[in-house]
Amino acid sequence: MSFVPPPYPYDRLSAIKAAAEGHEGGAIDCSIGTPVDPPPDEVIAELALAAGARSYPPSIGSVAYRVAIQSWLERRFAVQLELDAIAACVGTKEFVASIAQYLHLRYPDKDTVLYPAISYPTYAMGATLAGLRAVPVEVVGGRLDLSSIAATDIERALLLWSNSPSNPTGSLDDLAAVAAWGAQTGVLVASDECYAEFTWSDRPRSILEFSTTGVLAVHSISKRSNLAGVRAGFFAGDADLVDYLRSVRQHAGLMVPGPVQAAVAVAFGDDAHVRAQRAVYFERLAMMSEALTVAGVSAPMPEGGFYLWCHRDGDDGWQLAQWIAEVSGLVTSPGELYGDRGRDFVRLAVVQPTATLARAARRLHAWPQRPQLSTTPR
């Protein structure tokens, strides 16, 4: 039977969006983690210069691009890497979705991708697109339960995905333990760290602090600098793996455009705008966590990221998302989109302007005083 792509997860939210549209001002879409705040002015100015637009850019990333990343890794994580252990990617989603097929070419006897049971759906989809097995790993207390992985799955594994801070739960994984597991088993560990700058309960961490052998860290400029539209990121770590993936990706014509590389180098060179954005997200998280709690929804502050992972007894994720839309105008993502283990939750991304979210928060605060509303708590 030929492959039929499943519906794109966020295309399934039409009923929830319709319910939210009934509020004054329309729906407040918090279903996708796409930043709305402005990127740094100096980054946009550099982008406007269109430096390098005429010639093909280096697939691995320009020296300036990688030097800026190298410096950022040292400032942020006290990690020192050689330039040949760093390479560009066209946004990290593209990298997540394609790495399995490229690794399978190198290791054709391995056919399994291990990934968190509650997670970003592209980890599993990357395996599916490569014609490989996607095997979920149990998550306990927000961390991968590495002891639950069957020996037969370890033997067949191409890689294990870790995601810390987690999308969607906001939990922090034990990256030291994950790196040690990879060293013990010989399985590549790919650590998706694109929310690292928005770590709340600890300092930002990278798996590269614990090992640079048999591991790759994956980072994006999208969340850090509100530049999701330029599609740029990097992967770094094991120099042999970086060189192999660089070579394959070069043959595939995967290149971050030259003007984008120049602009992203500027963004990675500045930390002040990230500190300002951290304050914005934390304020929004606290505001929406409080408002949802008042309305009877469990929405604890996350350990990291800019998502609230919400639950209410008696509802599954679709029911709760529908209720939140009807009461507040917020469009959230049912947790089933992130795996069957998330079916009783919803994810709310605090990526809308603070004033817009405050409008929804006021409606949630008013909910207990509005029993006449047709929608009632379950």
Q: Any overview of this molecule?
A:
The protein is α/β, with parallel strands linked by helices. Helices cover 39% and strands 15% of the residues. The protein folds into two domains: 117 residues, Alpha-Beta Complex (Aspartate Aminotransferase, domain 1); 228 residues, Type I PLP-dependent aspartate aminotransferase-like (Major domain) (Aspartate Aminotransferase, domain 2), CATH 3.40.640.10. It contains 13 helices and 14 strands. The strands form four sheets. The protein has a seven-stranded mixed sheet, with helices on both faces. Strands 11-14-13 form a three-stranded antiparallel sheet, with helices on one face. Helix 2 runs antiparallel to helix 10. The longest helix is centred in the C-terminal third of the chain and has 23 residues. It is globular and about 60 Å long.
Task: Throw out a few tags for this protein.
378 residues; 2 domains; single chain; 39% helix; globular; three-stranded antiparallel β-sheet; seven-stranded mixed β-sheet; Aspartate Aminotransferase, domain 1; Aspartate Aminotransferase, domain 2; disordered C terminus; 14 strands; alpha/beta
What is the fold's blueprint, element by element?
Blueprint: H1 14-21, E1 28-29, H2 41-48, H3 63-77, E2 86-89, H4 92-106, E3 112-116, H5 122-129, E4 133-137, E5 139-140, E6 143-144, H6 151-156, E7 157-163, H7 175-185, E8 188-192, E9 215-220, H8 221-224, E10 233-237, H9 239-251, H10 258-268, H11 272-294, E11 307-311, H12 317-328, E12 330-331, E13 333-334, E14 345-349, H13 354-366
Parallel strand pairs: 1-12, 3-4, 3-7, 7-8, 8-9
Antiparallel strand pairs: 2-10, 5-6, 9-10, 11-14, 13-14
Helix pairs in contact: 1-12, 2-10, 3-10, 4-5, 11-13
